[in-house]
Amino acid sequence: MTKARPALASLPMLTARGLLSLVLGACAFPQNARPPDTLNPSLFQLQHTGWTEREGAPPTINDIGQAPDGSLWLGSGEGLYRFDGFTFERVRAIDGDSPAPTEVYTLLATADGDLWIGTSFNGAILLRNGVAKRFPKFEGIPLNTTVWGFVKDSDGTIWAATASGLQRFDGSEWRSVGKAWGVPEMMGYSLRIDSNGTLWAEAFGHGLFRLKRGLRHFERLADFQRKTSLRKTSLSISHLRESIGQARVRESVH
Description:
By secondary structure, the protein is mainly beta. It has helices at residues 16-27, 240-246, and strands spanning 14-15, 60-61, 63-66, 72-76, 79-83, 88-91, 93-94, 98-99, 104-109, 115-119, 124-128, 131-134, 147-152, 158-162, 165-169, 174-177, 189-193, 199-203, 207-211, 219-220. The strands form six sheets. Strands 3-4-5-6 form a four-stranded antiparallel sheet.
């Protein structure tokens, strides 16, 4: 039986043209033009370019991660792609002989060059210095588990929202986060980090939890209503990758 995704992650996927237009258009002004006089220019004041399947882009994009060299990793239902600003390359193999995942659901590119790849029914993959690391069942996330999202907290810890629960990477293997941390087990989650370093976790059907920086126990927000999800809560997420790649669009409650 297929499990439903959490509401936070249920926004429609953007087409390649729409998402890449947002990412690349919002990142750069034309070289011969000065920035608008406002601190918050509209999208229409920025230079933007769209790419479609004709230029090699995947037809749909689930997530985007930006590598330290500025290139973009694209996760899609057709696998993993890389875009250098000019051309799209479909990654058919990682670390030489290891086949690339055929369906990439979420990505997290870190400043040190690591790329976390969340797959559909194939768990998590860490691509580090050209070497792929997969995690068998005894090292955390089972290979048949879908990973819906990654976040990196203010202390550098990687967290994963999966179809079978919340996971935390301890530097060598994944650890299941459950009752000892104050959150339900064996259910889907969505995650966000706010500007104060607080980790927010929405447990599908069981409410909203938060973990303040430095603590090891989540607090459940008893007044949280199921009709409101993290995607409608302003968390001051500033990174373009987080606001476009993970959330797809940014929504705030005023």
